TrEMBL record:
The keyword Metal-binding does not apply. Its EC number is 3.5.1.-. It is an enzyme of class 3 (hydrolase). The keyword Metal-binding does not apply. GO terms for molecular function: hydrolase activity. PANTHER family: GANGLIOSIDE INDUCED DIFFERENTIATION ASSOCIATED PROTEIN 2-RELATED, MACRO DOMAIN-CONTAINING PROTEIN. This is O-acetyl-ADP-ribose deacetylase. It comes from Rubinisphaera italica.
Length: 178
């Protein structure tokens, strides 16, 4: 499913983000950039050990929640991996939405800084970090929408969703766009 927003196409796909061929993919990392399970583990496993070598060298202090840092794509078919840190869900009153929006925005800004025409996101924070899927989806798509309206965003933004349930949540929100 796709929607056009000005010059940008926002696309939803079901799949494994390590198979993407966009200019950059986003990793849902932890603040130590220490690797882990879920999409983080899948990306490091597929991209190879040079990614962790880069993050240790360039970002020894890790990455705060809501920010993002870039490495190259290692063995993947992408130029860059943007490692961002979404919030851990703690009930919703501790700034989780602002942090999640900031994670998306930081990656979109890196896409501009690195002149990426296309960028793929996973559903940040919706796995181990426990952010309720419908709320995470609303925040993700609304932040992408407002960024695209206000910036020279990449021409293609893909949300690569790991199963049909997550895809369904995204599709319901995207369908409500004019
Ligand atoms: P977080 O700690 O930010 O919650 P997770 O990796 O646990 O990160 O989950 C984030 C989302 O990524 C979840 O929706 C999960 O289903 C999804 N996911 C896990 N592996 C992959 C993958 N290989 N490609 C795309 N999405 C994935």
């Amino acid at each position: 499913m796709k929607r056009r927003l000005g010059n940008c196409i926002v696309e939803l796909a079901i799949g494994d983000i390590t198979a993407e061929q966009t200019d950059a993919i986003v990793n849902a990392a932890n603040s130590e950039l220490a690797g882990g399970g879920g999409v983080d583990g899948a990306i490091h496993a597929a991209a190879g050990p040079t990614i962790m070598q880069q993050t240790r060298k360039q970002y020894p202090d890790g990455c705060p929640t809501g920010s993002a840092v870039a490495t190259n794509g290692g063995l993947l078919n992408v130029k860059y991996i943007f490692h961002t840190v979404g919030p851990i869900w703690r009930g919703g009153r501790l700034g989780e939405e602002a942090d999640l929006r900031s994670a998306y925005r930081s990656c979109l800004q890196l896409a501009i800084d690195f002149q990426c025409e296309s960028l793929s996101f996973p559903a940040i924070s919706t796995g181990v970090y426990g952010y309720p899927l419908d709320l995470a989806t609303e925040a993700a798509l609304s932040e992408i929408q407002s960024f695209v309206k206000n910036n020279e965003a990449p021409q293609r933004i893909r949300c690569v969703l790991f199963n049909e349930g997550i895809y369904g949540a995204y599709a319901r929100v995207l369908e409500s766009w004019e």
